[in-house]
Amino acid sequence: MSWLKKIDQALQKRRSQGLYRTRFVNQTGTGRWLQINDRRYLNFSSNDYLGLSQNKEVIKAWQKGAEQYGVGSGGSGHITGYTKPHAVFEETLSDWLGYPRALLFTSGYSANQALLAALLEPGDRVLADRFSHASLLEGMLYSATRFFRFEHNQIDSLQKHLKKPCSGETLVITEGLFSMDGDSASLGLLHQHSSAAGALLLVDDAHGIGVKGVEGRGSCWQEGVKPELLVVTFGKAFGLSGAAILCSEDLAQYFLQFSRHLIYSTAMPPAQAYALSVALKCVREGNHLRQQLQANIVRFRQGMQGFRNLLSTCSDSAIQPIFFKHRPSIQEVALKLRDYGLWVPAIRPPTVPKGTERLRITITAAQEFDDIDRLLEGVHLVLS
Q: Over the stretch 25-45, which tens digit does the pLDDT of each residue have?
């Protein structure tokens, strides 16, 4: 079979399954509204939970950073790409979260893969929550280690794996706030059992940082847990992009020596790091934004109580998935909501397991009560 034929068959199969992905040109950024072609939509698909992507202070900081340092880093952080804004932000971030060191990466995907690639060796073992992010699962697949997925948020399932012998070291992986269901991990128990077994705990808190805990310090801080490895990302509540690994001094030095992502990849632009320091200040001082976000979440969940044909998780987070009892075409439901001026993503396999298709509604502080009410009206019209 030729390459072209192989590719054509894969695309045809994806189309026939109704799972073909399409990108749209968003002409307005990721604020309260989206504009696709000539139409505006209320945006219920963004992870910009605090609305900081449109924050004037953050925008001005990026502009100031670009004027002072240029628009690119010019190389790896091991050559000339590590600048004063990078160093300042790493130090401020690590102090804020209570870790000796923070290391910056261009994305959460990159940070997770870099960590797994550098840390794991043959004979080691990974135990990951079944609902862990694709970047973590893919990193395990590409490693030379054995990996197992314990049942979602089931400590008994983790314990069964921990009791089995392992010739190497064990790494336990979870998300702090799960990206598809919006529920939280049992971090206290996970850390307790991981530590008792001599395992390291890695928490990816992409969706909790900035939103949960005092000053938005995240899921781990809120639960009084300090995992050996904490990954936080800046494409959600911080409103920008990039990520960081928080860890001990020894682990940081190890990654600096052995993480190919750090050694061979161009560093994030210093202007971005400069803007991230201002975004962190906004996050820390953003109690009013977190209060507005929570008020919007409560209004949405209260409005959903009257819908009999829908199922939802017990999520009290900004992530509000909706499941349909009779399993209509999720894509068709999303398209009908667009007709009503609402942009809500349909989540289908392989992103989620077959049979768990859902609408993934995200609530943000930038939305108004009228927006939430319009969403509820749209869902009602689609179901009637």
A: 998 888 899 999 989 999 999
